[in-house]
Design brief:
This protein has 174 residues and is mainly β. It is 13% helix and 33% strand. It contains two helices and five strands. It is elongated, with a radius of gyration of 23 Å. The N and C termini lie far apart (49 Å). The structure holds zinc ion (ZN) (2 copies). Residues 63, 65-66, 68, 131-132, 136 line the site of one zinc ion.
């Protein structure tokens, strides 16, 4: 559904997201277990459009230490101001809100990208390095076993420098 600038009433327009998956196309670092849900309010501020609300989603990641898949709930506070594309940032002065904590962008009058804004805010809340658990023990660099599941015992009796296991890992990785 395209939202036209003229469709936004003076009092603002509430848009509810109810878990649809669309909007994540082209993003392959994770799977979408539950699409964005939440509510945003779209308002006109002069020629600008302000989108505010709170959304959440559940994504599936691969742990960067143990490579197991896990569910990761994300939540984002959406605060975005869109300036009409083509008119540059001149219109920004019309903003009466304190705009310091608003993300800025542009919109096309025929198609205000509300969903795109929501997805972008969720993406900004994603972890740089996803971990199934802060204390994830990862994979054994020697035998490759998941050390969260069982202690493979590889380090018992090791007397060399801690770097020895790194050397083994490099050889194994090839
Ligand atoms: Zn892990
Ligand atoms: Zn091991």
């Amino acid at each position: 559904m395209k939202l036209h600038y003229s469709d936004i009433p003076e009092g603002g327009l509430h848009i509810a997201f109810r878990g649809e998956e669309a909007g994540w196309e082209g993003l392959k670092d994770f799977s979408v277990e539950e699409g964005p849900s939440g509510d945003v309010l779209v308002r006109k501020r002069g020629r600008n459009v302000v989108i505010e609300g709170k959304v959440r989603a559940t994504l599936g990641f691969e742990c960067s230490r143990c490579l197991e898949r896990f569910s990761y709930p994300v939540e984002a506070v959406v605060r975005q101001v869109l300036h009409p594309s083509g008119e540059g940032k001149v219109a920004a002065r019309e903003i009466e809100l304190n705009s310091s904590d608003l993300e800025e962008g542009t919109y096309d009058e025929e198609d205000i990208p509300v969903k795109g804004v929501v997805v972008e805010h969720l993406l900004l809340s994603l972890p740089m390095r996803p971990l199934c658990d802060e204390d994830c023990k990862g994979l054994c660099p020697i035998c490759g076993a998941n050390r969260n599941v069982a202690d493979c015992g590889c380090h018992e009796g090791t007397t060399g420098s801690p770097l020895d296991c790194l050397k083994d890992f490099v050889v194994k990785a090839r």
